[in-house]
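This is your field. Please look over both lines of this record.
***
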Amino acid sequence: MHVKGVECMKERMKDFFWIPDNIDSLFWQQAVHKNRLSIRVVCVLILIFQLYNMSRVLFFSRSALSTLNNRIYFGLYLFLFCASILYLILDHLFAAHSIKKQWYLQLSAVVICLIWNICINTYDFTQTPPVSTYPFMSVVFGSAMLITMPNLMFLLLFVSGYIIFVGLNFQAIDSGNLLNLTIMMIIAIIIVFININHMMVEISQRKEIVHINAQLQQLLQKDALTELLNKKAAEEYIAAFLKQSFYNRYLAMMMVDLDDFKHINDEYGHPCGDHVLAEASRSMRIIFDTAICIGRIGGDEFVLLLDDIKDLKMLEKLCSELNRELKKISWNGKSLNISCSIGIVSVSENEITYDHLYEEVDQMLYEAKRFGKGCCSIKKLS
């Protein structure tokens, strides 16, 4: 139990710091989509502000670029300005690439912005001490609010940035600024943890809802007794398939009707009738295992669609095999002598509709019933 508890704790810690495998792809898709919008807005703001800063150095400063200090500031402003333009161009070019490549581009933008802020804030400390740590804090806090990344990645990236920044400027940062910076870092980490946890819960719930809806949709398409497609689902499936091109490939639509099924219900009761329907359905699934579609369209009536039917004689043999299997169905140890009548139409026309094909198959079933129990009637449409 102790070992199992430790393993469970490790798994929880892993899921807390990283993304669980079951929602991994959905998380990265949502994260990249959210980050794209956030970084684009930030880039536009950077372009505006750095254009203003460069103009301030060039036109509103008496020394312009004649001093080393102004040239360094101008170079830093110009670098971030060009980096933002480059990101916007690459973001547009990478839009059709994989989520992984788009994420690496976004991560690169965040890293460059963090390093740039460490550089300019550190240079500020060398010029006019004491200065505030607010520029660096704003990047950390802004990233926590706007950028989506796993908890562990945020910790590694921004705690490393915090350590580097404090290490470079430890002598220049007063205790008040250091305390504010540390508090802001802790708050940013908490915000990231809350946001990521909320996002993972939301994605998990959304995925569960999709899964439940898919199961419900599947149940709505299934006949509860036989587990075959119900009438509506079978008709829609076959109609959709007939709209596809199947040139030079013969399809076969079969209609199966159990002989004297009403007599079974009347003599042995409905539980026996349900048993017969379930067993007949099981036999059809086994014998016609390559069927595109098998559905129950009436009380004791079934429809099957088969693809690439090259040998109608072989199809007749399969129908005879179905009747042999039906003969084996018994109830309370007594043989029920079940048989079925089958109408089949083979077709290679691309433009035939479900209604037309159904009408043709229904006529073949009627003809098979006229021949007697357990008969099969086949027609090939040119």
About this structure: The chain has a mean pLDDT of 87. The two ends are 71 Å apart (CA to CA).
